[in-house]
Amino acid sequence: MSQTRTPRLRDLVLLPGFMCDHDLWTDMVPDLEAMATLHYGNVYEDTSLEGMARRVLDSSPERFVLVGFSMGGFVARVLTLMAPERVAGVAFVASSARGYSAEEIARRRAGYQPGDRPPRKAGEESVARGLHPAREADPILLDRLRSMQRRLGREVRARQAQVVRNDGYADLERIACPSLVVACRQDRLRRFDETERMAQHLPNARFAILEECGHMAPLERPCELAGLLSGWIGESGL
To answer: What is the pTM of this model?
Structure first.
């Protein structure tokens, strides 16, 4: 009597943004687990994109689909070029390949937290510019952002703040595997043209836009983002 075998799920490696931990992906997990075995990349112990990429590679399956959000997209670019034979496909979400200016490097190393803006005057509610303007004071989303930052702590922030991001648009042209680039229409931390330009430099790219979404796409539009990833993976045969 023959038995029907359940197809083996693909492996999906998730790389978070600056000062984000596993909770970044929580709302997407049910949809993603339906199509893949999930792995969470460790980007917390190194001070360079190359170091982060090597650490993720060391703990990842032999071949996998890679998803990088924001800073994780910078790591994803370096990792894919480092080991192209292991990356079946790569997705960049609200990311860029633009290098940091000297001012941006100085602000990051001084402790600036992307997405945060302190109250401008007594009694004014704190907001996060990483969120859509209509959600920038949402107490639930603000608490999740702050909680991730608290859990990771000062040491992780200090390490990630040391990461130097050089311009990498030309490097994208050497990534031959299927790629997905997702831009967020109301992203106030990442210019739309920066993300769009990534798709223009990738040889085998699909470009998608999340409407009514700020920078924090996995928190703000988890179902829509999971749908984009699922559709791209299916269409690309990954």
So the answer is: 0.89
